[in-house]
């Protein structure tokens, strides 16, 4: 019996190729989109999950701003860990990381520049449940001058041999010898804290490039990431409250706080994060899209099946006359749904697998379909299948209810209730489509708005050249070398200008210093505000195209030291001066000395336009590790960037023969801050397009249904003189009404959702009325096109054919 | 007696008025009868046939089939009853296009409790009896009208019903094909199968032993 059911289903699907294609394609696209989105969402949720991760917390600093504490810094003082362990028995242990930034490792002729190395406590392995491929976790980080490498790093530096006990040269400003005591297996990428290598904490005093206030146990320098292991029986919420309530005598206007490590990637966005984290809002939006697409494909499926069941009325009639009972007909219909859905799911999995590499490139993640992922997705697939079966139940029941005598005559009419259900389904489809359309338009508008924002600095054709100078040189000698280098570069026609600094717009917090405590020009003392500062030389502003509102750039001083500072307009506003001219030559006090304001620059975006402009203090330096070079666009446009880069490297190497060389294009780096947003926008676009496609398929099905149902009516109208246009109008008017209803429901929902989303941005585009209008027009346009495609055939058909079988 | 109708009426409401499709129909059928129902279009022939076949209901009256009161039966029992005793033959054959000849024949058996080997034997028997063994793997659309109606009759007969209800069985056929079909009915009737046919044709009527004339839903 069942084999016959399968046979008939298969033959039916093969016979009605267009219908089968539309139905399976709709489902497969929906399910494939759902799977891909879910794999990504799962990945984002899987950050920092390891054995015992539920008991690991990160300590961070809250700053007092006005009357309330705000999350001030993801990094802490080096005494936070030891203090919390000593004072709270729930804290079992702590591990501190000090990020070394740009460093170079050298084993004979193998030289490697790497920027994600850290100094770490030996407790790392226990707290992060990390094993070693080579070496002993108990002793690996206990001795001074020892290093633990990741497997890929060890491979690059030592090849396939076991590197334990071997020594490496470690460069950061100067050279230090370190012994390899462990090799970590390559770590999964889904941690917010990426590690290239670890150097023992006891090595810290021996590293010349690290400042003294970092080496000493102190409460002055918060540049340490601190993670705590909490007793699994302890109440973490209570502990957090106790830590917050403890207050701080060590530092004014700050307090310690903790957060679960598992929440960091999606929920934390503090200054000085280890990396740009994900965003839970984005994930929520993507989850919503995933479900909308899935539901759309179900609705689509229900509509199409119900539509098609009408054509099968005769078969149902014959079966009933032959003795089939309701349940048997339902079972048969469900079996067909099952086959169709299994086919769709299989195709969806194939599509998803094929697309995965492209998808990975797009998301920048390494998502995989591994056994455990598939296992975790099984319940979801189960839900999908169950949903589809439920979706199949409706047409099955409708089908089984046909009265045989009427069914045989082909005189089935859907009940008013049935029509209501289908109307509701189609309106829901329109609703989802319009909401997605509005979402896409708003997201695109906002992201493009951000991308197009003037940042107050011209980064085009500016390169940041960095390289590790692998010889020990005194500051004054380096200064001389940089001066020579600048002179030589300026003589080259490729170069317009050069400058020096230790960071630049778009570089983020990485190389930016911050401090608290400043005396304003009027004598006000502010202890709470966080100020950001970095160093630059005289030519910096010219290279970066940053304009002066008052005053001018630094005077060169041979000593390499100056009390002059240049501040931005926001700074002037912050210290209570309304006119920038007035701020000139005023004095402020921080770090225990007076500073003289010699210039006020126009506000520029240091962190990207998503964030508000912060007050900025620039101090003078004649030598710093970032060499900024503005290339001559008229030359590079002819000879190309590669020639320019080769020449730059030649000049650099002639001044620093023993060194490495690397470069960054500043405009690209600045744009990189928006990479996630751009991808979000693109994802939104792609999945909205797919959703619309699915909805259009459903509409197509529904129209064909209407045309069948109204065939006779159309025939009669035409016989009585109705024109094709009149018939088209008749067939389209219902759909236009439904789009209208959906539109009016969609507008408030999407206005609310998109308004909430826009709150994440400091600079936001406006929610103009035309966005909604455009979405409505697009929905209406797609609807009319889809509907007319079918209804035109019905409207232009010869009425005699329609009336013949009466 | 196979079945008996007492004062059967069926009506619909149209424009606020009761329109009778059948009015006060009473007759009986004995086993072995060959009855022709005649009458012009719209006289209620097909409706009557559908009521006899229990695939349509009526508003008033009594219908007794093999001593069972059909009008009092629940749908499920009614279905069991007609499944067991009644076979249908239609003017437009009503074969399932997606099934082969063999599968179309097997289809009704699936809804009655026969084992796979029994079904095979019964199908083979029918194919044999109607000389369509060679066509068993063809689909209905690959057959001529006469051949399709042969399959339709074979399907109606496969579960050995007591009663065959035929709704203009030759209506879509040419005269030669029609004669062949009517010959088969005669043969079946001789073998003891009761046949009730709806027909327009005087010629076909002549094959039957009794005629019921319908006009505007009433027996004349």
TrEMBL record, chain A:
UniProt keyword annotations, A-Z: Cell membrane, Membrane, Transmembrane, Transmembrane helix
Protein topology in the membrane: Multi-pass membrane protein
GO cellular component: plasma membrane
Chief place of localization: membrane
Molecular function terms from GO: transmembrane transporter activity
Transmembrane segment boundaries: 21-41, 285-304, 338-359, 379-403, 424-443, 686-708, 735-754, 769-789
Record-linked InterPro entries: ABC3_permease_C (IPR003838), MacB_PCD (IPR025857), Macrolide_Exporter_MacB (IPR050250)
Subcellular location(s) per record: Cell membrane
Residue intervals of the MacB-like periplasmic core domain: 20-244
Coiled-coil residues: none
Domain ABC3 transporter permease C-terminal: 288-403, 686-799
Protein name: Putative ABC transport system permease protein
TrEMBL record, chain B:
Gene Ontology MF terms in the entry: ATP binding; ATP hydrolysis activity; transmembrane transporter activity
Pfam families reported in the protein's UniProt record: ABC_tran
InterPro entries reported in the protein's UniProt record: AAA+_ATPase, ABC_transporter-like_ATP-bd, ABC_transporter-like_CS, MacB-like_ATP-bd, P-loop_NTPase
ABC transporter domain: residues covered: 3-220
Annotated keywords: ATP-binding, Lipoprotein, Nucleotide-binding, Translocase, Transport
Coiled-coil portions: none
Gene Ontology CC terms, in alphabetical order: membrane protein complex
SUPFAM superfamilies, A to Z: P-loop containing nucleoside triphosphate hydrolases
Similarity comment text for this entry: Belongs to the ABC transporter superfamily. Macrolide exporter (TC 3.A.1.122) family.
PANTHER family: CELL DIVISION ATP-BINDING PROTEIN FTSE, LIPOPROTEIN-RELEASING SYSTEM ATP-BINDING PROTEIN LOLD
Protein name: ABC-type lipoprotein export system, ATPase component
């Amino acid at each position: 019996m069942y084999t016959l059911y399968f046979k008939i289903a298969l033959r039916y699907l093969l016979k009605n190729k267009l219908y089968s294609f539309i139905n399976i394609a709709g489902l497969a696209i929906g399910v494939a989109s759902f799977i891909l989105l879910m794999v990504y969402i799962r990945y984002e949720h899987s950050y920092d999950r390891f054995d015992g991760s539920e008991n690991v917390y990160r300590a961070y600093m809250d700053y007092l701003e006005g009357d309330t504490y705000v999350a001030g810094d993801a990094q802490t003082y080096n005494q936070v860990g030891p203090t919390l362990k000593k004072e709270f028995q729930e804290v079992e242990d702590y591990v501190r990381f000090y990020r070394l930034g740009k460093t170079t490792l050298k084993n004979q002729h193998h030289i490697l520049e790497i920027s994600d190395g850290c100094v770490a406590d030996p407790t790392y392995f226990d707290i992060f449940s990390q094993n070693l491929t080579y070496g002993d976790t108990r002793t690996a980080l206990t001795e001074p001058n020892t290093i633990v490498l990741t497997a890929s790093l060890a491979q690059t530096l030592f090849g396939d041999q076991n590197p334990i006990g071997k020594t490496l040269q470690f460069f950061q400003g100067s050279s230090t010898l370190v012994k390899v005591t462990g090799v970590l297996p390559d770590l999964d990428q889904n941690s917010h804290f990426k590690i290239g290598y670890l150097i023992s904490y006891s090595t810290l005093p021996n590293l010349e490039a690290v400042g003294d206030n970092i080496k000493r146990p102190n409460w002055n320098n918060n540049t340490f990431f601190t993670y705590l292991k909490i007793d699994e029986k302890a109440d973490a919420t209570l502990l957090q409250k106790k830590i917050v309530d403890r207050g701080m005598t060590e530092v004014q206007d700050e307090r310690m706080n903790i957060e679960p490590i598992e929440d960091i990637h999606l929920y934390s966005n503090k200054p000085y994060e280890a990396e740009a984290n994900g965003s839970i809002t984005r994930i929520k939006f993507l989850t919503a899209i995933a479900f909308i697409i899935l539901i759309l494909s179900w609705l689509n499926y229900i509509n199409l099946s119900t539509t098609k069941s009408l054509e099968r009325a005769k078969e149902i009639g014959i079966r009933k006359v032959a003795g089939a009972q309701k349940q048997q007909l339902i079972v048969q219909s469900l079996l067909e749904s099952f086959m169709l859905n299994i086919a769709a799911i299989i195709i969806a999995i194939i599509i998803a697998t094929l697309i995965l590499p492209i998808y990975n490139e797009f998301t920048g993640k390494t998502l995989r379909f591994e056994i455990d992922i598939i296992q975790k997705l099984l319940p979801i697939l189960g839900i999908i299948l169950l949903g589809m079966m439920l979706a199949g139940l409706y047409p099955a029941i409708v089908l089984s209810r046909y009265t045989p005598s009427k069914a045989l005559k082909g005189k089935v009419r859907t009940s008013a209730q049935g029509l209501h259900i289908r109307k509701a389904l189609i309106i829901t489809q329109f609703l989802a489509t319009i909401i997605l359309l509005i979402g896409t338009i708003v997201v695109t508008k906002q992201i493009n708005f951000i991308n197009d924002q003037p940042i107050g600095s011209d980064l085009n054709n500016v390169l940041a050249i960095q390289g590790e100078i692998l010889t020990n040189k005194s500051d004054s000698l380096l200064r001389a070398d940089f001066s020579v280098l600048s002179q030589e570069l300026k003589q080259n026609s490729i170069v317009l200008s050069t400058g020096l600094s230790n960071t630049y717009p778009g570089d983020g917090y990485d190389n930016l210093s911050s401090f608290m405590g400043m005396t304003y020009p009027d004598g006000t003392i502010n202890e709470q505000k966080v100020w950001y500062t970095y160093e630059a030389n005289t030519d910096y502003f010219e290279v970066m195209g940053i304009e002066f509102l008052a005053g001018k750039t630094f005077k060169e001083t041979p000593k390499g030291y100056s009390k002059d500072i240049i501040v931005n307009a926001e700074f002037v506003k912050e210290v209570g001066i309304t006119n920038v001219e007035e701020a000139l030559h005023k004095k402020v006090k921080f770090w225990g000395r007076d500073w003289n304001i010699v210039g006020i620059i126009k506000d520029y975006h240091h962190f990207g336009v998503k964030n508000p402009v912060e007050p900025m203090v620039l101090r003078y330096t004649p030598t710093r590790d970032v060499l900024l070079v503005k290339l001559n666009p008229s030359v590079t446009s002819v000879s190309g960037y590669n020639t320019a880069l080769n020449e730059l490297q030649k000049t650099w190497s002639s001044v620093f023969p023993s060194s490495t060389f690397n470069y960054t294009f500043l405009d690209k780096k600045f744009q990189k801050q928006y990479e996630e947003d751009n991808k979000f926008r693109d994802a939104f676009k792609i999945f909205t397009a797919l959703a619309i496609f699915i909805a259009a398929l459903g509409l197509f099905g529904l129209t064909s249904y209407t045309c069948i149902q109204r065939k006779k009516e159309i025939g009669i109208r035409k016989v009585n003189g109705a024109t094709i246009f009149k018939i088209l109008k008749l067939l389209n008017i219902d759909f236009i009404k439904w789009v209208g209803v959906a539109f009016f429901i969609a507008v408030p929902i999407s206005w609310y959702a998109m308004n909430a989303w826009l709150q994440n941005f400091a600079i936001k585009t406006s929610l103009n009325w035309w966005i909604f209008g455009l979405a409505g027009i697009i929905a209406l346009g797609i609807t009319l096109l889809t509907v007319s495609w079918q209804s035109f055939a019905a409207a232009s058909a010869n009425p005699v054919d329609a009336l013949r079988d009466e | 007696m196979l079945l008996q109708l007492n004062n059967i009426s069926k009506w619909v409401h149209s424009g606020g008025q009761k329109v009778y499709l059948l009015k006060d129909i009473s007759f009986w059928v004995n086993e072995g009868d060959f009855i022709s129902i005649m009458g012009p279009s719209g006289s209620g022939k097909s409706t009557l046939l559908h009521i006899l076949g229990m695939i349509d209901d009526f508003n008033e009256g009594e219908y007794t089939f093999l001593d069972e009161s059909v009008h009092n039966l629940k749908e499920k029992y009614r279905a069991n009853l007609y499944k067991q005793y009644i076979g249908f033959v239609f003017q437009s054959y009503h074969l399932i296009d997606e099934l082969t000849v063999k599968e179309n024949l097997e289809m009704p058996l699936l809804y009655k409790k026969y084992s796979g080997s029994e079904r095979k034997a019964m199908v083979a028997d029918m194919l044999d009896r109607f000389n369509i063994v060679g066509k068993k793997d063809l689909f209905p659309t690959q057959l001529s009208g006469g051949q399709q109606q042969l399959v339709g009759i074979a399907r109606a007969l496969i579960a050995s019903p007591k009663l065959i209800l035929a709704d203009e069985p030759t209506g879509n056929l040419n005269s030669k094909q029609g004669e062949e079909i009517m010959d088969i009915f005669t043969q079946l009737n001789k073998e003891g199968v009761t046949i009730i046919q709806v027909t327009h044709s005087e010629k076909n009527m002549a094959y039957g032993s009794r005629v019921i004339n319908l006009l505007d839903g009433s027996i004349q």
